[in-house]
Hints:
By secondary structure, this protein is an alpha/beta fold. It has one domain (6-246): Rossmann fold (3-Layer(aba) Sandwich), CATH 3.40.50.300. It contains eight helices and ten strands. The chain has helices at residues 44-51, 73-78, 95-105, 110-123, 139-150, 169-184, 219-226, 231-246; strands at residues 6-15, 18-28, 33-37, 59-64, 67-68, 80-84, 157-161, 188-193, 204-209, 212-217. The strands form two sheets. Strands 6-7-8-3-9-10 form a six-stranded mixed β-sheet, with helices on both faces. The chain has a four-stranded antiparallel β-sheet with strand order 2-1-4-5.
Amino acid sequence: MEEKAIICKDLTKQFGDFVAVNKISFEVDSGEIFGFLGANGAGKTTAMRMLCGLSFPSSGEATVAGFNVFNQQEKIKRNIGYMSQKFSLYENLSILENIEFFGGIYGLSDRQLKEKGEELVNTLRLQKEAKKMVGELPLGWKQKLAFSVAIIHKPKIVFLDEPTGGVDPITRRQFWDLIYKAADDGITVFVTTHYMDEAEYCNRISIMVDGRIDALDTPTNLKKQFSAETMNDVFYELARGAKRSDN
């Protein structure tokens, strides 16, 4: 039986009296596309930062790629890729310079950097733009390049924090084609989003409300469970339930 890519048990993050992530528990299989859905402020990014080794949990347990989030954060970082919506590339560097910079951080040799750089540019069909500054690229191309750079070292897991925010529907679909290819290559994909239609692209999804995981299953089973025609309806019902529990 393959090792679980991620295991969480009662993982919690608290800032003073505010509980940002409240005892979440789940497991992610190797090679799975796992979606973390929820509105802004639901706790998605905070949870991801703990799993990436960027923030210490307040309590609970978790392993990522077999390493403990409390005392093996550096080992976690060497086995994952990470892409943030807000910052992923240096806009004042060219496409090739970004590839060389991040590939170097991930520990690729000069020979690997050259090979991977050429392969990546050809795959994205950016041969003519290879020396162009990233800041000159359309947002959709920046996001696809950032994702490709995040997996250039073939990590066990890649974490994507709302990677398709602000891009048009066609580019979003193209981006998900890249995610499918990564999963086919054996990379586990952990993606946060607030786009309900993107839930359809995941093997399983969890829905976060106020720092809690209020539902976790396949998109099809969640629709049946909540008798909703779309994931928008599912999320709406969960959000209403959260408000009722606070009153």
